[in-house]
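User: Please run a holo structure prediction.
Assistant: Happy to. Please share the sequence and the ligand.
User: Here you go; the ligand is adenosine monophosphate.
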Amino acid sequence: MPQLLAESLIRDVPDFPKPGILFKDIAPVVENPAAMKEAIELLAEDAKKHHADAILGIESRGFVFGTPLAMHLNLPFIMARKLGKLPYERYTEEYALEYGTNTIEIHVDSVKPGQRVYIVDDLLATGGTAAAAARLVDRSNGLVVGFGFLVELTFLEGRQNLLEYPVNALIEY
Ligand code: AMP
């Protein structure tokens, strides 16, 4: 497969946000409409293949890819947000990050029972965030049908945390 436009645009920033972390900066991808179009179309093909009927994005870079994906597919977009941001009744899941810990939440009525949910984020690292998002969908009695990422850091073996699910990453490092 030819290199994606997005791959040529991702910027490596060493030692951010902590020494030893090589941060994959996707800002130049988001700033390039052709790269975004290509990425969203590829994620849409995957979500369609799994017969998704909702897209869930993980705050905040998951929103950047998840919202246009949901609109492209004419599907609902569900927000998984960081602790304390959602106003209504919530499900809450904690997880460990590559750097630090975090908590994400969804509204209890966002995922409908039996809904086929495709989960989107910019990057798969250890898979802790993605696995927590899947637990939120489970607790809502939805069905996780797959995961879509722009980037996967394969050496962190995040897929080991998502063994039950199809995982698609457009760019692997
Ligand atoms: P994880 O839970 O370890 O899979 O971490 C995934 C989340 O952290 C994603 O939302 C990414 O945006 C962010 N993240 C983790 N590691 C990196 C990295 N090296 N470069 C950019 N973003 C990262």
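The chain is about 30% helix and 35% strand.
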